[in-house]
């Protein structure tokens, strides 16, 4: 697999963690460099990372979106330590991922805009986006049982989504995660996994 992205991207990190857990090596092309970004744009009309290119037996598959890439890795190599939801859990997991990804994307957009000099106060919608992040973080904390969204311990896609989101919030100073003891505890428990430790965002 050829993986396009940056080492700070929480969505790319999800793919890196899954690849590590499944023992799958990959070639990493950084989109932080203009050449990598130009190459990425030849593969995806969205210009977003992660984007992955698989070449097998002369056929090429190009996938964008972290979930799409992870599903592909799961179908090729099994799910390793990750648990897929039971049919009864599926709606709850999808809800959690949708909420977390909504908060993460809002936070990433605010980060980009602030970097370009725009303040959150510049428009009511930006303020709403910031409040949306706080709403989701508060909700996520209320749902946790230790390191799991479910009463039984598990590592699934909702937990992976939350962990990568929290670490991004701390790394980019986007949200005061420390104000939520259960979120901090969640991070602490998962940080024991080597795949999590080895993929912390770095500047
Ligand atoms: N739904 C996508 C979101 C990917 C995404 O938003 N990636 C960000 C980096 S973390 C990106 O590509 N940003 C560049 C841009 O928006 O131009 C996924 O799960 O992979």
From TrEMBL:
<dbReference type="InterPro" id="IPR036282">
    <property type="entry name" value="Glutathione-S-Trfase_C_sf"/>
</dbReference>
<keyword id="KW-0808">Transferase</keyword>
<protein>
    <submittedName>
        <fullName>Glutathione S-transferase</fullName>
    </submittedName>
</protein>
<dbReference type="Pfam" id="PF13417">
    <property type="entry name" value="GST_N_3"/>
</dbReference>
<dbReference type="InterPro" id="IPR004045">
    <property type="entry name" value="Glutathione_S-Trfase_N"/>
</dbReference>
<feature type="domain" description="GST N-terminal">
    <location>
        <begin position="1"/>
        <end position="81"/>
    </location>
</feature>
<dbReference type="InterPro" id="IPR036249">
    <property type="entry name" value="Thioredoxin-like_sf"/>
</dbReference>
<dbReference type="GO" id="GO:0016740">
    <property type="term" value="F:transferase activity"/>
</dbReference>
